[in-house]
Amino acid sequence: MSNWYMLTLTGEDQPGIVARVTQALFERNMNLGEASMLRLGGNFTIMMMVSGEMDAAALKQSLQEVSAALGLSLHVDPMQGGLHRHVPPNLMVRVSGADQPGIVAKVTGVLADAGFNILDLESDVAGRADRPVYIMQIAGIATTPLESLEQALDGLRTQGIDVNISPVEMLVG
How far is CA 63 from the centre of its chain? Predict the structure, then answer.
């Protein structure tokens, strides 16, 4: 029986992080499940589901050398996991507006109250330093009709937040 873990590593971006971490996992007979690896503000972060026969303490100990050599912070959490559990989004929300405190909380709160489940969220700040514009893209899933979600988002639009929601066209094959 395999144990599942959420492995999180963060640190300053540099070439070779993915190669060295995945090689270390391979050498320990660990299998990768879903993963997200990206650069944020000059730092690189990895979140990946891994499975294998090691317990959490042994896995963390076995990865200490590679994480220390790369200057990465390492965190290992036991979790319920498995393959083929990915849920594809059926809706995409695009947000832009003057950067303001609480913009993410406002948008995600309205979406949550309307029954929208966030699967992926990416954001950035564009514009000039004196006039920043917040940009966010959210992929998610909802069984709520699109019209109901549109109505729920209307209150944000009156606050100067441009919010657009559209169905995701998915090709399978």
Answer: 23
- Write the pLDDT tens digit of every residue in 116-162: 999 999 999 988 889 999 999 999 999 899 999 999 999 999 988 99
Cβ atoms of 137 and 167 closer than 8 Å = no
Q: Return d(Cα 47, Cα 72) in angstroms, integer.
A: 13
Residue 97's SS3 state is strand
Q: CA separation (Å) from 8 to 26, 41, 75, 127?
A: 16, 17, 5, 31
Q: Beta 43-52 vs 117-128: how paired, if at all?
A: unpaired
Beta strands in 22-116 (DSSP E): 31-40, 43-52, 73-79, 91-98
Task: Give the pairing of strands 43-52 and 3-12.
Answer: antiparallel
In sign, the C-alpha dihedral spanning 162, 165, 166, 171 is positive
- The count of residues in the chain is 173
Backbone region of residue 3 per phi and psi (left: phi > 0; alpha: psi in -120 to 50; beta: other values)? beta
Task: List the one residue out of 80, 74, 78 whose CA is nearest residue 60.
Answer: 74
